Description:
By secondary structure, this protein is of the alpha+beta class. The chain contains three helices and six strands, in the order H-E-H-H-E-E-E-E-E. A two-stranded antiparallel sheet has the order 1-2. A two-stranded antiparallel sheet has the order 3-6.
Amino acid sequence: xxxxxxxxxxxxxxxxxxxxxxxxxxxxxxxxxxxxxxxxxxxxxxxxxxxxxxxxxxxxxxxxxxxxxxxxxxxxxxxxxxxxxxxxxxxxxxxxxxxxxxxxxxxxxxxxxxxxxxxxxxxxxxxxxxxxxxxxxxxxxxxxxxxxxxxxxxxxxxxxxxxxxxxxxxxxxxxxxxxxxxxxxx
Length: 186
């Protein structure tokens, strides 16, 4: 009888992999065991025959939820489009001894336009079928100070104290999700 009750609970909570009534971050550990192994269809949420990245995305939408769980829809339809907004145009060139930015260079901000103000974007990625690409015909400006070993350019890698000494650094390109350099990440 206990086993039947456990199975019933699991049916209304398929993303609670350890059966504790909550889909928490430890579920990712259970999910990653035997990830991508041929013939392993446990936690194959999209029923395509194997545990893959799409299944991980489905699981991630339920993190932090309690059982029973209603199906959380994919992000399709929540992001209506992208909005690019010019923030600053350099009237004259800017040089600080390390870098030079020509006159007319424009600083932009790129925003996701969402269908509901409660939507939170937790990540942006692509895969072989739907690659993530960004085309900047005039290029992006990266300061000589942006030499992080990972090769990534995130707001958390920017040192705000350098901006007052090296003004071109304040115009460098970087990626962020809801915070600017120097702000606490939440």
